[in-house]
Amino acid sequence: AVRVCHERTPQLVVLDMMLPGRSGFLVLEKIKGNPESPAVIMLTANEGKRHMAYALSLGVDEFIVKPAPLEDLI
Question: 30: part of which helix (H) or strand (E)?
């Protein structure tokens, strides 16, 4: 996903905080590391305020706690 974001520059990435083998925060750091980075919506089942604050500090555009209504994601 990180490679694709750097090669193709999508307009939007929907990213889960917990990924197999890698933290969503690490992916977020790499995706948001340039001026042409896409908008990122981070989804998580973790309701902790520290996680949301950290994601916001890394440049996430929206932080949604699961389960979330489809209307919120759209």
Answer: helix 24-31
